[in-house]
Amino acid sequence: MLKHGLQTDQDLKDGAPDLSGFGDVNDLTFGLGPDKPPTSAIIKKEFQRNIIYHMSPLEDSTLAAMLVKPGPFTALLTAKFPKEDDEGVESVRRVFIKTAQDRVVKPEQQDAMIARWAPVEVFTLDSDHSPFFSAPFLLCGLLVKVAASL
């Protein structure tokens, strides 16, 4: 996440998933009407394994495909911290866990977000977008390490 959300074209380039290289992969919901921007999105089931779970065990990606729900598109694109609360926001220690083989938020996008709002520490997992499936023990170890350092 970028501190002040996705307000500019550069913010979108750095922080929003670009899945255009995979073709028409999203199912969009227009909860406010067909003439308004989409309110939620989900990657079509036939593309989920290749895009989100390509390093995850097949049984985990199969279960995930059955349980995944549409992401709140509008909420994710408009999430931001208020500018007047910069001091409070900056007082919270943040770490970033990069997912090196991520096809949703690509490594160069992760690097751009890190450069624009540097965390205290950066860890890298050789995983897909879902390290809780593709590298659960490594992810757990990192989370324990981070929690112990607070």
Automatic annotation (TrEMBL):
InterPro entries: AB_hydrolase_fold, MES/HNL. It comes from the Eukaryota. GO terms for biological process: jasmonic acid metabolic process; salicylic acid metabolic process. GO terms for molecular function: methyl indole-3-acetate esterase activity; methyl jasmonate esterase activity; methyl salicylate esterase activity. This is AB hydrolase-1 domain-containing protein. It comes from Eucalyptus grandis (Flooded gum).
